[in-house]
Amino acid sequence: MDITKKNLLILHLTVFVWGFTGVLGKLISIDAVPMVWYRVMIAAATLLAWFLITKKNIKISKKQFIQFFLTGGAVAIHWIFFFHAIKVSTVSVTLVCLSSFTLFTAILEPLIKKQPIQLGDILIGLLIILGIYMIFKFEGQYTLGIIFGLLAAVASSLFSTINSTLVQKSEPSIISFYELVGAFFWITLYRLYDGSLLNTGFNLSAQNWFYLALLGTLCTSVAYVAGVAVMRTLSAFRVALITNLEPVYGIVLAFIFFQSKEQMTGGFYIGATIILASIFLYPIYKKRKNQL
């Protein structure tokens, strides 16, 4: 197997693992805030161990530390909203709403980077809005989950846009590590404020610890390192297309694990198809636009 095919396989497996996070979020029986707290703690510790084993220099400037540390707050909010959406609705609803990340990125990126909004971005955005409307209309019982899923998408587009600038000067793995440390710090402050950290501490069932270990290691630090590594030989276009399979993998896995609990109305699947088609069209549109 040549290097390109090998990296394509690794990327597909990585995206598949990312899709599994939604299933783990449903299986873990604790609330979203402590779940994310454990996740970032385990993931940061795993990355630190990997840095020590590989003897990687992770020194950064004070300015970079502040930037990464603050961005970690947006990462924490994204994951908390994401898992809370799963708790109050379904994995399928949450993943499809999270796919609207493309819409919010098309809006936020030009604002943050002071660039004009492209007509094509607006059209793709309108298609995604149509899909979201269909889901709201036919899955009204999951309104709270839809709202938190969309908020998770906003937070995701915010820190991803910021990271697209930060990555120009720092390695992605180092950025990720310090953002995870930042996320852990901000969530710890919140848990100290609401008393949940002192009340529960590390008192979890063996099953929850097992799922959290998978979430923090395989689905976060290991998948992240693998995802970054393959980007050295694969084009950004190919990576974008394959990454867009995450909600598809996640929905299929959720149906396998939870079956009837993940069955939706026909309107949901129409809306989901519109949104997923839009996010697959987006990188194609971007590639053709850049070739002009």
From TrEMBL:
InterPro entries: EamA_dom (IPR000620), EmrE-like (IPR037185). This is Uncharacterized membrane protein. The chain crosses the membrane at residues 35-53, 65-86, 92-112, 119-136, 142-162, 174-193, 209-230, 237-258, 264-285. It comes from Pedobacter suwonensis. It comes from the Bacteria. Keywords: Membrane, Transmembrane, Transmembrane helix. GO terms for cellular component: membrane. Residues 8-136, 144-281 form the EamA domain.
